[in-house]
Structure formats: structure tokens, C-alpha cells
Amino acid sequence: xxxxxxxxxxxxxxxxxxxxxxxxxxxxxxxxxxxxxxxxxxxxxxxxxxxxxxxxxxxxxxxxxxxxxxxxxxxxxxxxxxxxxxxxxxxxxxxxxxxxxxxxxxxxxxxxxxxxxxxxxxxxxxxxxxxxxxxxxxxxxxxxxxxxxxxxxxxxxxxxxxxxxxxxxxxxxxxxxxxxx
Length: 181
Description:
Blueprint: H1 2-19, H2 21-27, H3 42-49, H4 53-66, H5 72-76, H6 82-107, H7 148-152, H8 156-179
Helix pairs in contact: 1-4, 3-6, 3-8, 4-6, 6-8
């Protein structure tokens, strides 16, 4: 049994080393197999949460590197099958969502982020057994948020839409707070 655990840790470390290679150079922070979104500095989190193709490719680099597929250059040059690209993009978008939900948590807009205590690398295939669905669980709006009554009156499906609609404003507010007065 100890060998199985050690093998899993070894695989996670190798995936993290390959996946975070471009992040180390870009963000000048330390990342490893245990790094969670809540461990990231505010500046790094802001960059990851910002809209734009280049920021999405930071996540694509992570996904491809962790899976031993190289970096986003292969993705951009169409060196991969369409189904592989779709899977990589789905994973990258899921990580982008999680970064944005962490922004909302730091602002106090959501109380907690589902699976927020898991290391980033564990959201990638092979790091943990599949949970049956690859969809990102949405956080609930914090009762302290000024629009909580409006949110609470919505059916559950619409609550998810409500949370997603807050993302652009949350990223702008987080950026404003980091910039200071």
C-alpha cells in the first residue's frame, strides 16, 4: 500500500514540475504538487483571472505540461487532434473558472469555493479518480453580499447563472483593490 501512495505522489510531483514550468518563469513564485488557488499571491491570481486569450494559454500550458504534451505552442500549431484540443480546452476553462471563484472568495462575495482546498494539479486527469463529472461546482453567494436576497430568490439553476454574471465585476473590483486608492 505504501508503494501505491508513493507512486501517486511521484506522479503528482512529475505532473506539477512539467505543468508549472512556464508558471515559474512567468510569475516568479514557487509552485508544486500541493499548490492551491488559495495559495497564489493576489497579483498572480489577478493575472490568471483576467479575460483574454493569453491568460487562457497560461492554463493550457499547465494542462499540456502536466500531461506531458509540451506547451501551448503545440496547441496553437494544430499538432493535436481536435478531441485532444477540446479536452485540454475544457480543463483549462475549468481552471480559469476556479481562479475566478477564488477572486470572488477573497472579495468576500462567496463564502467558500467547492473543492477549493484541493491542489491545482489534482484537477487534471490522472491525479485523482474521476468524480463522474468534469463540470466545475459553482460556489454560493455569501449572505453578506448586497445582492444576496435577489440571488436567494432564484431557482438553483438561475443562481449559477447569477454567480457567473458577477465574474467580470468581481475581477474588475479585485483589480481595483490591488491597485489601491
